[in-house]
Amino acid sequence: MRSIFLILAVLALSACGEPEVETLDVKIPSGVQVPEGMVYIPEGEFIMGHPDEPRTRGGVKVSTPAYFIDRYEVSRGAYAQFDPKRSVAESKADFPVVFVNHAEAQAYCASKGGRLPTEEEWEKAARGVDSRKWPWGRFFEHPNNGFSGFLSEPVAKRPEWISPYGLYGMGHNVWEWTADWYGYPGQPRADRETFRVIRGGLTQTHVTIKFSPTWFRNWMHPENAFQFLGFRCAKDVR
Description:
With 238 residues, the protein is an alpha+beta fold. It has one domain: paralog of FGE (formylglycine-generating enzyme) (Alpha-Beta Complex), CATH 3.90.1580.10. Helix content is 17%, strand content 19%. β7 and β8 form a beta hairpin. It is globular and about 45 Å long.
């Protein structure tokens, strides 16, 4: 009888599946109207960067004002409404838009009354105020590790991988443009204001696929547009 109880207990635990992400309880001030599809991020401090990564802020407290940011990466369907030259198959409309350069991403956000998020805004929305390395909290290997190639997924997929503020796709799916230039202490003068910071994608080497930590900074020339690079928008709270 005891063995039966043990088996039932194991089955019950297996049925629970992935644990839910521990999210933050955010109180929206009276009078603030959150735009559709966006999330309110309150003002205050968070830990930015990591001490072992010299090209980050190094793990110091940084403060931001309140702002709004898209819950999902901009989809191909949404972008096609902005740029009708971009035809998109219905089956792919919910996938993140890619092959957009920095100026095109900025123009889309401006058309919605917004802008690209700053690095500070992006990182705070991804890691919250408890200094998470991964948006969803605990570490695990990417399930596709060992395969060559990378395919994006619908922007609303993977609720088990959301950030503490409930944003999707901040530690996987595509890399995302930010508003900031890529810079760091000691950067050669010739490289200054040459590349824009991109965040939140996967690092790939041959058949190895890894999640990028919330503080991980990557860079890209603003005129480039690739199949692994998309964006989301932010907006000031007025």
